[in-house]
Specification:
459 residues, FAD/NAD(P)-binding domain, D-Amino Acid Oxidase, Chain A, domain 2, 12 helices, 34% helix, 20% strand, globular, disordered N terminus, binds flavin-adenine dinucleotide
């Protein structure tokens, strides 16, 4: 293991991934096509059948996969959707089988052409881990914490220092490329500063959302006409929301969430009362029907956070960062998994391009972080603009304008399935946000604004 890997720019010997969570696994899949060996370091004791694990406690909460994310994953892991469907994870049209409560009413239940699948985070991570570890190039070092980077000469990372649980000493592992996928608490900023790299302050936008979640049996006779029931939070008047997902093994996953002091309780009665307080009644209906349940889980640290590594001028060679280690989104918008999948896809393409040009790995890491920033920008803007509007006074014009537009757009969606379908495509990242500014949509939004003005409504 301690043997020095190839050192030339043109050798693609070993990649090391720090973190064997979701982004680490998808990144390992991308790397496996380009490196002889991919070593994944995961600090939790996991094996190929592990789903949720202690250091990724968000895994107990509802995880929606956007259509774009599912498409990218299917490209990396052909047959994944069918595998999850065989376990009971439904595949359905977003409009037809989703009871979606917008701020002022329910979205149309018409076909949108956007197909999605609902499953647990446990289920998807289990499938991905099994498939990634089945690749002969990939090796998992479980219960192994990365403690630092190997930087024998300034400006280039040449591996990692790690320690396995119970081992007396740390060990070194050389690598041609190191990928940090260690999630929202990544120590990378400190490691970079230790190398003398000037790292900009991370941007944090408070989301102040608390999740409380439970899983319970989904009765086969209960066919309630939907596979997802959702109520969005929306500043400033809808501080409580929730999502109920039909998932594999005849289960529901229910996550209730609230802004600021609207904490969904963890006790049975309080949980049901909170659900009953939502204007989408389907969540409470199913929570009330449950006969048994698993443990209740709460998650409170869901701020938006962006480490702007693309701005680091002296970003080291042979090091990249991916997933929540770079950017964390308020989870109510369901973007993290899809963005990480897109980042892994971009990694695959960037490696292929460098290889095709015979360019080796020189310059790749900086190019990659800049490209990743372009992937992150639109979902970040959506998430942050919406969250800023809980306290609208003094917020940037762009955030206020976006909120003004969205408020009216959602009102149009209630009675216009075509506009709703456009929104669904954008929300699922299968169409660019510009389709919501097509002249026909803008005209409808302005018409809505006019009628609100006449009716005296100003939100
Ligand atoms: C409550 C909640 C609900 C969410 N819902 C959704 C949703 O509906 N849809 C969606 O798309 N996204 C959702 N997200 C976001 C999603 O969970 C994250 O975007 C995703 O987990 C990011 O994956 P990651 O691999 O970057 O980080 P993580 O999943 O956190 O994995 C990081 C891994 O690194 C390991 N690690 C850390 N440090 C080290 C070290 N030093 N050495 C070795 N290993 C290390 C950890 O053990 C862990 O396994 C939600 C998040 C939360 C909190």
């Amino acid at each position: 293991m301690g043997k020095k890997a190839h050192q030339s720019d043109y050798s693609w010997g070993r990649a090391v991934v720090i973190g064997g969570g979701y982004a680490g696994l998808v990144a390992a899949r991308a790397l496996a096509d380009h490196f002889e060996e991919v070593v994944v370091l995961e600090r939790d004791p996991v094996d190929r059948d592990t789903g949720v694990h202690p250091s990724a406690p968000q895994g107990y909460h509802a995880h929606a996969m956007l259509a774009k994310g599912a498409e990218v994953l299917e490209g990396f892991f052909p047959g994944l959707r069918a595998e999850l469907r065989d376990q009971g994870a439904p595949v359905f049209d977003y409009g037809e089988r989703m009871s979606f409560r917008l701020p002022d009413g329910f979205a149309p239940r018409d076909r949108t052409g956007v197909e999605i699948q609902s499953f647990t985070r446990d289920g998807i991570e289990r499938s991905l881990r099994r498939r990634v570890l089945a690749r002969p190039e990939v090796r998992l070092l479980s219960a192994t914490k990365c403690e630092g980077l190997l930087v024998p000469k300034p400006g280039t990372v040449e591996g990692v220092v790690y320690r396995t649980d119970g081992a007396a000493d740390s060990e070194e592992l050389t690598a041609d490329l190191v990928v940090d996928a260690s999630g929202r608490s990544s120590p990378l900023d400190a490691w970079l500063e230790g190398m003398g790299v000037d790292v900009p302050e991370k941007v944090v936008v408070k989301a102040k959302i608390t999740y409380t979640s439970m899983n319970f049996h989904r009765p086969p006779d209960g066919a309630p006409g939907f596979d997802i029931a959702y109520q969005m939070t929306f500043a400033p008047h809808v501080p409580r929301g929730g999502v109920l997902l039909a998932v594999e093994n005849d289960r529901w996953t229910c996550s209730l969430f609230g802004f600021d002091d609207q904490l969904p309780p963890t006790d049975d009665e309080g949980y049901l009362d909170f659900a009953k307080g939502l204007t989408n009644p389907h969540l409470a209906e199913q929570v009330e029907r449950r006969t048994e349940q698993e443990q209740v889980h709460r998650y409170t640290n869901v701020n938006n956070q962006w480490r702007r590594y693309h701005r680091v001028k002296d970003w080291p060679e042979r090091l990249i960062a991916i997933g929540d280690a770079v950017c964390v989104f308020n989870p109510v918008y369901g973007q993290g998994l899809t963005v990480a999948a897109l980042e892994a896809q971009f990694l695959h393409r960037t490696l292929a391009r460098h290889k095709g040009r015979g360019a080796g790995l020189a310059g790749l890491s900086r190019t990659y972080q800049r490209g990743l920033a372009r992937i992150v920008l639109a979902p970040w803007t959506l998430s942050v603009n919406s969250d800023l509007m809980w306290n609208p006074a003094g917020q940037p014009f762009a955030a206020r304008a976006a909120h003004w537009y969205n408020t009216r757009l959602f009102a149009v969606c209630l009675r216009d399935p075509a506009v709703w379908a456009r929104f669904v495509r954008v929300a699922n990242m299968v169409a660019p946000p510009t389709v919501l500014f097509h002249p026909t949509v803008v005209a409808k939004v302005l018409g809505e604004a006019l009628s609100r003005r006449r009716g005296g409504r100003r939100t």
